Fold:
Amino acid sequence: MSRVEDFHEPIPELIKTTPDTMLTGTPIYDRDIAFAGDLDEKILLIGDSAHPMSPFKGQGANLALLDANDLAESLINNPDNLQNVLNSVVARSQKRMDQSRKRVFQLHDPNGQHELIQERGLNQLILESFEKNNITAEDAADGTIQEKVLKALEPFDILPKK
Structure:
């Protein structure tokens, strides 16, 4: 329970009231570098084995489907050149692995959330207005975020007219 006590509601309450027999936890692994295998050692990896990453927008599953498609096409059309599959898996996966790790930081760390807001292109005035109006992730949990955001954006005259 101590690991989630600082999470926003209702997560701590849900975990606290769920019977222990209904809870399970497994670690999530990622890797710094995509690795699709070594054909000299007769190893070819696809999916999470080639590019484990934190779950974000289904990127791992999407990549696994693309990997499987590349492998199937290669086995049908050019089975003697599986190196192309390895190269394709690594080239496609590395950027998404890096982005997934970055998003975990941005979505789960207050400093990262600030970075994400800036990255999304909110200009400095709007960002300062959010800070001035004390708009935080907790507002999403308690249901007040829409009201606070609309109030904070009023001076910028960017909202649709009623």
The chain has seven helices and two strands. The beta strands are 37-38, 43-44.
